[in-house]
From TrEMBL:
Known role: The UvrABC repair system catalyzes the recognition and processing of DNA lesions. UvrC both incises the 5' and 3' sides of the lesion. The N-terminal half is responsible for the 3' incision and the C-terminal half is responsible for the 5' incision.
A Pfam family the protein falls into: UvrC_RNaseH
Name by which UniProt lists this protein: UvrABC system protein C
Transferase in keyword set: no
GIY-YIG domain location: 15-93
Record SUPFAM superfamilies: C-terminal UvrC-binding domain of UvrB (SSF46600), GIY-YIG endonuclease (SSF82771), RuvA domain 2-like (SSF47781)
Chain's gene name: uvrC
HAMAP family to which the protein is assigned, alphabetical: UvrC
Amino acid sequence: MSKPTLEIQLKTLPNQPGVYQYFDAEGKILYVGKAKNLKKRVSSYFTKQHDYGKTKVLVKKIASIKHIVVNSETDALLLENNLIKKHQPRYNVMLKDDKSYPWICIKNERFSRVFSTRRVVKDGSEYFGPYTSMKTVSTLLDLIKGLFKLRTCKYDLSNEKINAGKYKVCLEYHLGNCLGPCEGFQTLEDYNEGIKTIREILKGNFKDSLIQFKQQMKHFAEAMQFEEAQIIKEKIEVLENYQAKSTIVNPKISNVDVFSIVSDESYAYVNFLQLSYGSIIRSHTLEIKKKLQEADKDLLELAVIELRQRFHSNSKEIYVPFKINLGEDVKVFVPQLGDKKHILDLSIRNAKYHRLEQLKQVKIVDPDRHANRIMAQMKADLRLKEEPRHIECFDNSNIQGTHPVAACVVFKNGKPSKKDYRHFNIKTVEGPDDFASMEEVVYRRYKRMLDEGSTLPQLIIIDGGKGQLSSALKSLDVLDLRKKIAIIGIAKRLEELFYPDDPIPLYLDKKSETLKIIQQLRNEAHRFGIEHHRNKRSKSALNTELETIPGIGEKTIVELLKEFKSAKRIANAKLDELEDVVGVSRANKIYNYYHK
């Protein structure tokens, strides 16, 4: 469509909540979004200055707009989620999880079977789940099998067929796993009592089941039926054992959904914990691929709707780390302390662990994606104009002004590039002057790179505070590189990051990957500089000592060091050992020098 038509569409949008859809010139859907006010939200795409490249590209591609007006924000959220799943638009977030999950089915039939399945059939049967782990399903089914004797056969156990004697008991009956309803050995009423208890257990309600079993045990004990009482006692122990493993929160916190989010530049991870009768009955983390730098609030709202739909949750209460709008039917709480806060913290911890696992896997399987993510994160954290693919870090090393040296270490794509490391001996500075030394080294490094036509880094890091940074800036000014390369200083004490012309330092989260890489750069520069400084000092000390011996030249010193490895060993060597290396005459000179 032509641009005027698009402008008219924008002017005629209603000031109502709803869902909007962007299409390109070929009629292909690009993006689906929700809004409290359709006109304001959609217009903002065309009037605001967008910093993010993908948003700019999206706006350029929009040829037409469609919208659907709904009654409330909740309806808009639900509709948006359904349309994203149906059309998978290019610029919408990707909910990376479309596999089928296992359920536990209580079959709609006489003498109901209880089994696991991945297919939900609408035949009146009851389905519990879905469960995120088959291990959980197996554990529950083993628990049920240990508590109740249920049939596993697929016979049609109608009253007429049982009375007609159509079936005979199988091996399961003889093994004691089934009470033989197929031959009428167990009544439907007695069987359904077990199914009723199973239903409560699958809902997470162990309390009623325990009360019921304890009453049965007491009844058998009073009737002197101790063997039956012992069987019931063992069932109670099995149930209490299972309950002890699953109950980790306050039993008063019941039928609640807990959601938390952890995100970086490219992905978000939303953890979902479902609580029932004080037990966590489900934990699942959803991975979301960002497309347009979506805010955590928008991502969490979308994920909450998706996860509640997927896992058929009807809880009226949810806990989240910050306020989100899900309509009037659901109560949203942001816990601040106590057991509710503990369970929210547990959810956040689960999301963080999931993210770490994904990052470790990506690092192994797809190192390029890992590097891209780190670079995007550093660009955002350090407020840079471009990704710092090439970083150089400088550090001075001197002890009481002797042998001043400096080191430059280079990281490319977040990893050390050791072949590009450089040492510098300070040439123009007299005495211990770190500021002047930094000025000299930065000038020499980038003067040479400019002369050789080498590729300049995107970021320079100076190990030191404002003074060191100012010295480095003087050299960049002389070379006319001030606006061409980003530069920051890092102060050791509080890990403060200083920027040119900004008196207020930046503090990064102590656990952030960006800070860890900067610390790694700084530590590597320090190590590399100290190593060079030590070598220079020891070489100087060694040369001074050996060169003072009359009649001993550089060639002799090299021969001695090859054999004895150190000046100390030369000093302690026996005369005959020295003679074997350098001959009688020079050996006597060396031996007499050290044994005056």
